[in-house]
Amino acid sequence: SGRLDDLSRRSLLALDDVVAQGSLVTGEVQTLANEARSLESSAPDDQSSAAAAALRVRLDDLATALEADRKLKLGSTPPSEEQLAYSTALVHHELEQLQDLLRPPDAGQPPQ
Fold it and tell me: What DSSP designation does 65 have?
């Protein structure tokens, strides 16, 4: 539980890095996904394993989107505006998915 909390906290911090640096932090996100994979396989119970698996999936999806964005931008053929827009939208979508997992919509909001 403590290891998963720590990984979740570091994953939240990585979101800021992704926003600031984009695909330059792909390796950082991949490392976090690998840590989640390790926690998933060594979890003491099914609930902990499921929580680690959910985090791993979101981190893997973000890492995949970042890697695709990086390849697009570094490719030998300059990407079109549409390709760049789609890639950026995909990265932002994956960021939101991870953020929703780490910070549920009601977290930190006062009841109405």
Answer: H
Cβ count within 10 A of residue 21: 12
Per-residue CA distances from 15 to 8, 12, 100 (Å): 11, 5, 11
When the pLDDT of each residue in the chain is averaged and rounded to a whole number, the result is 91
101 neighbors 53 (Cβ within 8 angstroms): no
Crossing angle of the two packed helices 26-42 and 46-74, in degrees rounded to 10: 160
Asked if pLDDT for residue 51 goes beyond 90, the answer is yes
What is the distance between the alpha carbons of residues 75 and 57, in angstroms, rounded to a whole number? 27
- Residue 64, pLDDT above cutoff 50: yes
Q: Which amino acid is at 24?
A: L
Q: Are 23 and 73 contacting, i.e. CB atoms less than 8 angstroms apart?
A: yes
Residue 2: predicted pLDDT: 87
Torsion of CA 12, 14, 15, 20, to 10 degrees: 140
What band does 62 get if pLDDT is binned at 50, 70 and 90? very high
